[in-house]
Amino acid sequence: MRVPVLVRFAAGAIGALMLAGCGSGGGDAATQQPPGPVYSGCVTPADCGNVIIAMTDADGDFLSYTVDVQSLTLKRANGDTVETLPLTTRIDFAQVVDLSEFLTSATVPNGAYVEGSLRLDYSNAAVTVESNGQPVEARVVGADGSPLGIVDVRVVLDNRNHLTVSPGRPSLLTLDFDLAASNTVDLTTSPATVTATPSLVASLEPVDEKDLRLRGPLVSVDAASSSYVVDVRPFGHRSGKFGQVTVYTNASTAFEVNGTASTGAAGLQALATAGAGTQTLAVGTLSRGDRRFDAQTVYAGTSVPGAGVDAVLGNVLSRVGDELIVRGGTLDRSDDGSSRFIRDPIVVRVSSTTKVLRVGAPSSSAFDSQDVSVGQRVLAFGSIEDEAGAAVLDATQGRVRMLPTHLSGTVHDVSAGNLELQLESIDGRAVGAFDFAGTGASADQDADPDSYEVSTGFLGGNLREGRSVRVLGFATTFGAAPPDFEARTVVDMRDSRSSLTVTWGMDGTDAPFSTADDSGLIVDLQNPDLGRLHVLRTGWRVRDLLDLPASPQLVPTGDRAAFVVASRGSCRSFHEFADFLAEIQRQLTAGGAARSLTAHGVYDENANVLRAKSIVVIL
Question: Which residues form the DUF4382 domain (predicted)?
Fold first, then answer.
C-alpha cells in the first residue's frame, strides 16, 4: 500500500499569522458607538465590546460574483454563539478586490472567539466572466457538479490567535473571500461553468494594505473634532442596524457633497448643512493602534451612487459625439435602491451642461464633457431610461466623475517623461473591447494599443523595454491625443501582486510537493496527478508553470501572512508555517488528497520565488 507523503524528498518549518474557512452544504441564507447588532447578554457596557468586521476579496477571473450573505456568527471558547449580521446582505465580491468595506460594527460579549460561520446563499447568484473579450453569464456548481444553494463557510481560528473582545478598543476581523482559491472556471461549456469550493481567509490585522470603504446615512457632525458619525449600511443597504462609526477628517480630506467639491473644514461644513440622514460614502484607512477611521475622501448626498439619482459605473468602450458607450460596471437605481452588475453596454449621454469632476484634482479644477475619453473609468449620474431595449443614462443635466484608471501592458520604449506601451488591458478588460476612434487630434493620431503613449513626468525612469507595467491615471481629453494617457503611478510588475494556482483534479494527489521545509514549498510539476491548471498570474500576464525553468519556490513573508488548510467539513488556519505543513501531512496520512493550491504574493522572476502573503491548500 502506498503511504501518503507531503513531499517526495523533505519536510520542515517556518512562521507567520491568521484564520481560515471552508464551505459545506448545497441545500435549497474605530471609535464605535452602538446601536448595531447587540447581543442580549450585554447588560452593562462593561460586559461587552465592539468588533468591526470588514469584507474584501483576493483577485479572481470574474467581472462579477454576487451572492447573498445570510448570516455571520461568532463562537466563543465556551460554545456561546452570537449573530453579527442583522440582515441578509447581497455582495458582489468582484467589486471589493482593491478595497475592503465595513460590513458591521457589532456589540458582543467580552471573551475569546475561536471560530465563526458565514452562511452563503447561491440560489440567486449572479456571476459573470469574460470570454473572448465579452462578458458572459456563468453557472455556479459544487464539487459534485450540482447547483449550489446554501453553503456554510466555517472559520476556525488559530489556537494562538483568537479574536479577543473587551471594552474600549474595538477588535477587528477582516474576511477575505478568496475567489481565486475558491473557484475554477470552464469556458468550454454553455453557459460557462464555475465550480465553487468556498474558502475564506480571515485576519485580525489586514494582510494587504487596502483602502477601507464605509457607507451609511449621516447621524451627526462634530466640527470641533473634525469628525462625523454614520450609521453603517454596507453594500447599498437602506435600512438595518449595522452599528455606528466615527469618521475623522483633516485639512486635506476631499469632499464632494451634492456634486460640489471642497476640502477640509469647508467640506465638513457642507456635510453638516446637508443634515442628518444624508447618505455618505467615505474611503480611508483604519489605524492599527486605536482603530480610528481616517477619511481621505468623502462623498455625500447625490454624490453617492443611487442616492436620489441613478448612477452607472464602468469604462468608456467608445465615444461618438456626446454618447459614451460604457461597460463593465454597475447600475445603481434611485427608485428601488438596487445595485447590480450590467453585462450589456449602457449609453451615457453627456453635453456641455454635464458637470465633470476628476478624483484627486483640486476643487478649483475645471473639466467638461470633452475630457471624458475612451478607456476612462467613470461614475456617471443622471436618469436611466430604456430605449428600444437598451439602457440609456441621461447625464446631460447630471454629472460624470472620472475615476483613476488602471492600464496593464509591456514597455516598448522609454523617453524623458514618456512611456510607449503594448497595451494589454484597461481595468482588467482586454484591450480589444475598446474602440479608440476619435481619441486623437486627427484620425492618424488616434490612440493605438500597439504603441500606446503615456505621459509619465518623472515616473518610471528605471523602466526598460520589455518590462511589464501597471499604470494608474487618466485618459487624455477626447480628441487631444497624443499622449493617450496621463500617469499618476507607474508600477513595475515585478513589484506587483502575483497569484499562483495549481490543481490536481477531483481525485487530488497525496504527494503535492517536491520540497516542503523551512525554505518553503515547491510544487511537484512532474506529479502524474497534476491537473489542468498550473499557472502564475501577474496582472494581465498568465504563464504556464511548465514553461518556467523550474517550479517556483513559495516562501512565506511578512508578519501578517495567512496559511490555510481547507477541506470539506473542516477548516484550519495557522500562525506557524510548520503547523500548516504538519496539518497537511496529517490529513494526507489520514487518506486525504490535495485538490488545489493558491498563493498570493510578489514574484521574483530572477530568483524564481513567490514571496507569499497567503497560501490556501484545499483537500
Answer: 49-182
Pair (415, 378) in one structural domain: no
516 shares a domain with 479: no
- Please report the pLDDT score of residue 23 as a whole number: 60
Residue, of 248 and 61, whose pLDDT is higher: 248
Measure CA 162 to chain center.
25
Write the burial class of residue 316 (CB in 10 Å: 0-12 exposed, 13-18 middle, 19+ buried): buried
Q: For residue 245, is pLDDT > 60?
A: yes
25 within some domain? no
211 Cβ partners below 8 Å, 6+ apart? 98, 99, 100, 283, 284, 285, 296
- Domain containing residue 484: 405-495
Residues 65 and 136: their CA atoms lie apart, in Å, by 12
Q: Which of 495, 515, 541 is the last residue of a domain?
A: 495
Q: Cell numbers 436618469 label which residue?
A: 383
Asked whether the beta carbons of 347 and 370 are under 8 A apart, the reply is: no
Of 259 and 41, the one with more pLDDT: 259
Q: Could you tell me if residue 511 is inside a domain?
A: yes
189 shares a domain with 101: yes
Given the DSSP bridges, would you call strands 163-165 and 150-157 parallel, antiparallel or unpaired?
unpaired
Positive or negative, the CA dihedral 195, 198, 201, 206 is: positive
The residues, ordered by sequence, that sit 6+ positions from 189 with a Cβ below 8 Å of its Cβ are: 139
Average of per-residue pLDDT across 571-596: 86
Average pLDDT over residues 301-325: 94
CA atoms within 13 A on the CB side of 160: 10
Domain final position from 288, 303, 318: 303
Helices (H), ranges, 57-195: 179-182
* C-alpha 316, offset from chain centre: 21
Cβ within 8 Å of residue 486, ≥6 positions away: 454, 455, 473, 474, 475, 476
Mean pLDDT for all residues in the chain = 86
Query: Could you write out the DSSP letters of every residue in 379-392?
Result: EEEEEEEEETTEEE
* Same domain membership, residue 573 and residue 432: no
